[in-house]
Specification:
It is built from eight helices and ten strands. The protein starts with a strand and ends with a helix. By secondary structure, it is α/β, with parallel strands linked by helices. The structure holds N-[2-(1H-imidazol-4-yl)ethyl]acetamide (AHN) and zinc ion (ZN). The site of N-[2-(1H-imidazol-4-yl)ethyl]acetamide has 9 residues, from loops.
């Protein structure tokens, strides 16, 4: 492997049977020391997968682009050796419109009880309701960051898993209809449950009955140019140990400028429903900019500027290498 990151895990044993004066490790100590070789995450590849999704056009439920991209994602996961489930379901939007949705799940080592779940939404928002230009506010967005970036990172991780399997079984879950929440200009009541329709369905009706994993990690908007990730409120309520672990791994790898170990805001995102409906402890890696006048999610959020020009290979690398390390270290 060209630039694999070596990661040494030390398992301490209760009593050492080392002979006095002998500085070398004993056989049992050597057994306890496991060198874990973590693949180097290729962020250029994640960038390309992000672009591939955007090239279909906005991935809004019931559109041709949505249908074509679903096929692309399922085939891509299959080509990377995952066992793929396409969970098709009709879901009802805030305006009572019927949305033809599909959650796409790629499973590795499906027989293993030791599992990690990795989540991202794959749909894009039907309206640029936060665009500075009023004329754009009914136009669907590319969602290069909001949607495609997390999926791009997870597709690259899937490619790495096919090359070298981690100890854990892994489920990569692409949720549909996360971003169909009522637009700003909607006159009716705006309920939290209008968002995250695909994850709500999956959490009630998982692709395998009684599904459980050790924990879940949600990636949402993980490719922005000015991204910084803080401890998200619900992630700390439901999965604080996991959240702190991820942030400490990021720091150790030199990505401390992206992962700030301080409290950020709270977001009603897919992880809230996975935590509350399925009781699977799940964290959300989502940007937080306290001082951004447009939005705490960044300047391109729910605007037509959320396109490939908003995507940074460096941010994809910071997030991708961090979660790759977390996944491969888990035993
Ligand atoms: C709410 O605005 C309630 N949730 C935002 C979750 C989201 C939208 N993530 C991406 N786009
Ligand atoms: Zn969104």
């Amino acid at each position: 492997m060209t630039s694999a990151v070596m990661s040494l895990l030390l398992f301490s044993c209760g009593s050492s049977n080392r002979k006095s004066g002998n500085q070398s490790t004993t056989e049992s100590e050597q057994e306890m020391m496991k060198a874990i070789d973590v693949p180097s995450f290729d962020a250029d590849s994640a960038f390309q997968y992000t672009k591939d999704q955007c090239d279909f056009g906005p991935r809004v439920p019931n559109s041709q682009a949505h249908k074509a991209c679903a096929k692309f994602l399922a085939n891509k996961l299959r080509s990377f050796g995952a066992q793929v489930t396409e969970q098709a379901v009709d879901l009802i939007a805030y305006d009572d419109k019927m949305l033809h949705c599909v959650n796409i799940i790629g499973s590795y080592k499906p027989e293993s009880k030791k599992r990690i779940a990795l989540f991202s939404h794959w749909d894009s928002r039907p309206f640029a309701d936060h665009d500075s230009d009023v004329k754009n506010r009914h136009t669907p967005i590319d969602g290069a960051n909001d949607g495609a970036s997390g999926v791009g990172v997870l597709l690259e991780l899937a490619r790495q898993i096919q090359k070298k399997s981690p100890e854990m079984g892994v489920d990569i879950v692409f949720f549909d209809a996360e971003d169909y929440g009522a637009p700003e200009y909607y006159k009716g009541e705006k309920k939290d449950e209008y968002w995250c329709l695909g994850s709500q369905y999956w959490a009630r009706q998982p692709h395998v009955s009684d599904y459980m994993a050790r924990y879940g990690i949600l990636l949402d908007m993980v490719g922005g140019k000015d991204a910084s990730f803080y401890y998200e409120y619900y992630s700390m309520q439901y999965a604080s140990k996991l959240t702190k672990k991820i942030w400490s791994v990021a720091k150790e790898l030199g990505y401390g400028r992206y992962f700030i170990s301080e409290d950020g805001g709270g977001v009603t995102d897919d992880h809230v429903f996975v935590n509350q409906l399925m009781h699977l402890p799940t964290t959300d890696i989502i940007p937080y900019q306290a001082n951004n006048k447009h939005s705490s999610f960044g300047s391109t959020w729910h605007t037509l500027n959320d396109n490939m020009s908003a995507i940074s290979v460096e941010t994809l690398k910071a997030v991708g290498q961090t979660i790759t390390t977390v996944v491969y270290r888990e035993q």
